[in-house]
Specification:
Helix 2 links the parallel strand 2 and strand 3. The chain is α/β, with parallel strands linked by helices. The protein is elongated, with a radius of gyration of 26 Å. It folds into two domains: 255 residues, Rossmann fold (3-Layer(aba) Sandwich), CATH 3.40.50; 82 residues, formyl-coa transferase, domain 3 (2-Layer Sandwich). Helix 1 packs across helix 7 and helix 7 crosses helix 8. It contains 18 helices and eleven strands.
């Protein structure tokens, strides 16, 4: 499908496996844009359908020209449109008729009031993939509740297993429920698109922050659903395996992992810890797992005799995973991260080249370009250009502007 004549318009436009798709992005905040960014980075023509925020309303992501929104909305074009006007809504429907995907994260009552819900739009385009993201699901006791990352981190149980016993429930340091839900919605979109390639049928794809985080609990979640076991916070140590966690060096901390018998043998040899290896309390992996506190104390007495660099070198050379605990600046300055080129420039007409974080997905058939096709657009930056490519005449575009619909 795809809009007739619509292309990703820059001369440096990104190409990729999704270059045949046209996406109408109606999302705000973080979770929805994370899903759409997957499509934009891999070649889809993404049109951000948006209105200027009312004066004083602000933006939870810091404004379009800040780092957050630039990173979320790169490789997109922007159409400023007022869906509350008859003219704006009619123009939007013309876009829907030619689009492949619509993504939204409105509350249910808002999308029905604006007449942009799935049941309405599929009448105009039966092959449309319509994707929705919410805090708690599209229905149910909490279906109408507003949901944000912090609230869902708490309600999902995540905060109860983060931190240590003394700290109490602790927030994960990133917006993990937002980005997780966005990633899962992106996967759902790709599944629906694959199904449409075989059948021609569109469908409604949706997930929520709560569903995403419950899925991310993974083995701790399954320990409850199967055995009724409620996991507790373990601090920086793995909840079931040892040694695996944070250990002191003479000049800071490292993470290391040696849960298998072979790794334990290699760790003790690499650190010349003959007495530790011979300790009858730690002879088997099961004994080390059940005696995690004793292992922690005994191994810490060994590791603190070395500095961070020595531990990282000795243990990795022996096949035992070990790494420093970096701050974000150190992480991006790490030689491996620089080798991977995780930061890439995006051209902005006023800010110049800005450095953004590239997609972590690598495809041999579509190597990452040296730079992003475009930085995030200002609201309505491409309105006339987009409408023209969707078949609107100059007179129609002028009339829409006069009606303040765009």
């Amino acid at each position: 499908m795809g809009a007739k004549g619509i292309k990703n318009q820059d001369a440096a436009a990104v190409s990729g496996p999704l270059a045949h798709l046209t996406v109408l992005d109606m999302t705000i905040a973080r979770a929805g844009p994370t899903a759409v960014r997957l499509l934009a980075d891999w070649g889809a023509t993404v049109i951000k359908v948006e209105q200027k925020l009312p004066p004083g309303s602000g933006s939870i992501t810091g404004g379009r020209r800040g780092p957050d929104e630039q990173n979320l909305h790169r490789n997109k074009q922007s159409l400023g449109i007022d869906l509350k006007t008859a003219e704006g809504h009619a123009a939007f429907i013309r876009l829907v008729e030619q689009a492949d995907v619509v993504v939204e994260n409105f509350r249910a009552d808002v999308k029905h009031r604006l007449r942009i819900d799935y049941d309405t739009l599929k009448q105009h385009n039966p092959a449309l993939i319509y994707a929705s993201l919410s805090g708690f699901g599209q229905d149910g006791p909490y279906g109408e509740r507003p949901g944000v990352d912090q609230i869902v981190q708490g309600m999902s149980g995540l905060m109860s297993v983060t931190g240590d016993a003394d700290s109490g429930p602790t927030r994960v340091g990133i917006a993990i429920s937002d980005t997780t839900a966005g990633m899962f919605l992106g996967q759902g979109l790709l599944l629906a698109l694959l199904h449409r390639e075989r059948t021609g049928d569109g469908q409604w794809v949706h997930t929520s922050l709560l569903e995403g985080m419950l899925s991310k609990l993974d083995f701790q979640g399954a320990r409850y659903t199967m055995n009724g076991e409620v996991a507790k916070a373990q601090g920086n140590d793995h909840p079931t395996q040892a040694p695996m966690g944070t250990y002191p060096a003479s000049d800071g901390l490292v993470n290391l992992a040696a849960p298998t018998q072979r790794m334990w043998e290699r760790l003790c040899a690499a650190l010349d810890a003959n007495a530790l290896y011979a300790d009858e309390r730690f002879l088997t992996a099961r004994e080390r797992a059940t005696g995690r506190d004793e292992v922690k104390a005994a191994l810490s007495a060994v590791t603190q005799q070395f500095n961070i660099a020595e531990l990282v070198t000795r243990l990795n050379s022996a096949g035992v995973p070990c790494g420093p605990i970096n701050d974000i600046g150190q992480a991006f300055d790490d030689p491996q991260v620089k080798h991977l080129k995780m930061a890439q420039p995006a051209p902005h007409p006023e800010l110049g080249d800005i450095q953004l974080v590239r997609s972590p997905i690598n495809l041999s058939g579509f190597p990452h370009p040296a730079r992003f096709a475009r930085a995030a657009p200002d609201v309505g930056e491409h309105s006339a250009q987009i409408l023209e490519h969707f078949g609107f005449s100059d007179a129609e575009i002028t009339a829409l502007a006069a009606a303040q619909a765009i």
